[in-house]
Structure formats: C-alpha cells, structure tokens
Specification:
372 residues; two-stranded antiparallel sheet; mainly alpha
Length: 372
C-alpha cells in the first residue's frame, strides 16, 4: 500500500487541497447564503434552534472541483464525473434557494446520474462469489447504474438531518474508497475519493455540532453522486470477488436509515418524499443522546463497517486458493466487531421491537402519534 501511495502522490495532495479549500471557503459561502436568504429557520421537524445558512454544498463543490481539475487525468470518465457532479450540485442548490417539486428534483437527479453512464461509467460486469465474472448487457448496466446513483443521492440527503452526520459518514466512506481503489490500481477513483474525503473533513470544521452552516441539498446530492459513481468506477467494475460488497459495507448506514424510513412511511400510508423525524439520528436523540454523542456513535459504527471492508480486501485469509487460519481469524474479528456494533445500535434504538405498540408509539415523530 505504501508503494502504491508513493506512486500516486495526487491522492495525498488532492485530500489536502480539498480540505484547505473547504475550510477557507465555507464561511464565505455561509455569509453569501445569509444575504440571499438561503437560511434554515427553526421549525418542528428541524433540530437547529437558531437560523442556520445552508448552501454549504457550494463550498464542497469547489473543494471537489478545483483539486479534481488539478490532480485528475481529465479523460473521458473524469469529464463524466465532473459534469455529473456539477448537475447534481446545481439541482440541489436550486432546491436550497427556491425549492423544487419532488418530481423536478428527481428529474434533475436522474439527469445527473445519466451523465457518467454516457461517458462510460456504468456497471458492465461484476463478480458473484463462487460463480465467477458475469458480463451485463449495456442497457441493464446503464439502468442499474442510474438507479444506484439516484438512490445513494437520496440516501445521503436523508442522512443529512443532524449536525455533522452526513459529512462525517461520507468522509469516512471517501477515505475507505480511496484506500481500496488504490489497491485495485484505479488511480482516478482513488484520487477522486481522497478529494471527497478531504472536502468532507474540511466541512466538518464548520458543520459539526453546533453547526454554523448546513450543506443543504447541494452538498448532499453532490456527495451521494460522488460516492455512488466512485463505487461504480473504482470498485464494482472489477473482477475482484469481494469488491461487490465494499460499497455495501461502507455505505450501510445511509442504506439502513433509508430502508427503515421508507418501510415506516409505506406501513403508515405516508408520502415517501415528505420529511419526518423517523430517521436513525432522531431515534438516538429520543433515547437521550446529545447531537454530539449521536454523531460520534454513528461515526464509530461507520468506522467499524469500513474496517471490515478493508480487512476483507487486505487480510490474506484465502491466498492462493487456500484458507489460512490466523488471517481468517483476524478478518473474522473485524467482521464480528462490525456486527456487534450493529447489534448494539439495533438494541439501543430498539429497532427489533418496533412491533410492540408501546415502543412503536414512542418512536413515532412528535406531532404524528396516533390516538387509539
């Protein structure tokens, strides 16, 4: 890994430049957002008690764009990445500033997701464990990629409901993807992942509790788009047997959060696109966690999942087609820690007990509890 890193110094420089740009630019964007009136006012479904400017996603965008232009080889796929990211950010910024109907926003997301597929970034093959590599028809690969990208854009948007949460989780995911992409000799994906991680960690300086600015839809859609396309370009389009599961490990938190929220809305006959307080971070708060503690707990959860993904890639538990005892024990240990932490979260949030009427009522968002 050290040899690969020394051969690709753009990974480190991309991370540092993105970090610096977002650190410096975010307060400026916050001031502009206040003058434009792009501010989140306190209300019943928000956690902020004072007006907080949004549009922080614009700082994230420039923190990604500038080092990408400087350190990426601007080939066909890189152009697709950057053009799609620009569309995703623009759609989010318009929604932050003026508001969009759900179908307008979804149309913009589909347009952003379709761009990288037109530039050759789509799943054309993947590997099933024990079965082997399978080629996909182009139309299936393109359609699956668009669905994946749009889904992850919305997952990150759902996750962005508490100070620092989305930025921290996406930063950990970006760092993990950079390491894995380096090992798979995917330099474009590695550099872009490192840039995304640097931008996220720079934004956390201003967004961690108590937040002074929110990323808004502009930032959430940008980060969701970036992580989704990185997963396709650098991880899924490989013959590595375990590569299919890397994105699922690292992005488990936004995936689970979205799954639980949508399942609840479908169960109660609610509209899928209307915001509520059923997300995992709101459940933490209703269990007595502070915003800071809830965010740090979810960071730790994401870190254990990322460690499991890295162990799957780097611990040689099945080298040369044969299983090796101690590497297998080590890799299994990382996996067990991730599973144990997931069980802890499920226990704390009582996710497995939601069928009990008393607990279900307690978990219903304030103002939405049903009377018998």
């Amino acid at each position: 890994m050290l040899d690969e890193l020394s051969a690709t110094p753009e990974v480190v420089w991309g991370f540092l430049v993105a970090l610096g740009i977002v650190l410096v630019l975010t307060p400026v964007v916050g001031g502009v957002a206040r003058r434009l009136g792009a501010v989140d006012e306190p209300d019943a479904r928000r956690l902020n008690e004072v007006p907080i400017p949004r549009l922080g996603g614009l700082a994230l965008f420039f923190g990604v764009l500038v080092p990408a232009l400087a350190f990426l080889e601007i080939d066909r796929e890189a152009r697709g990445l950057l053009l799609g990211a620009t569309i995703a950010t623009t759609v989010g910024a318009v929604d932050d500033f003026r508001g969009l109907a759900w179908w307008q926003k979804l149309g913009g997301q589909v347009a952003a997701a379709a761009v990288p597929t037109a530039f050759g970034i789509y799943v054309d093959r993947f590997t099933f464990p024990f079965v082997g590599v399978h080629e996909l028809p182009v139309w299936i690969g393109v359609a699956a990629t668009i669905v994946w990208v749009v889904a992850l854009m919305n997952m990150v948007n759902f996750l962005d409901g508490m100070d620092g949460l989305a930025a921290g989780v996406c930063g950990i995911a970006g760092f993990t993807f950079a390491v894995i992409a380096l090992s798979l000799e995917k330099p474009t994906a590695a550099v872009f992942s490192a840039i995304v991680a640097g931008a996220c960690f720079g934004f956390l300086r201003h967004n961690f509790y108590p937040a002074r600015i929110f990323m808004g839809d502009a930032g959430a859609l940008l980060l969701g788009f970036a992580l989704a396309t990185i997963a396709v370009q650098g991880l899924l389009k490989t013959a590595s047997t375990v590569a299919l599961f890397f994105p699922l490990f690292v992005l488990a938190i936004p995936t689970l959060d979205t799954t639980f929220v949508l399942a609840r809305r479908i169960k109660h006959g609610e509209r899928l696109y209307v915001a509520d307080q059923a997300h995992l971070h709101f459940r933490f708060l209703r269990r007595g966690f502070s915003q800071r503690r809830a965010a740090l707990t979810m960071y730790a959860w994401c870190a254990t999942l990322a460690a499991a993904a890295l162990a799957t890639r780097f611990v040689p538990f099945r080298e040369g087609g044969q299983w090796h005892l101690w590497p297998t024990v080590l890799a299994s240990g990382f996996g067990l820690v991730a599973v144990a932490f997931s069980i802890y979260v499920a226990y704390v949030l009582e996710l497995v007990k939601l069928a009990t009427p008393r607990l279900r009522r307690r978990d219903e968002p304030p103002g939405e509890r049903r009377t018998a």
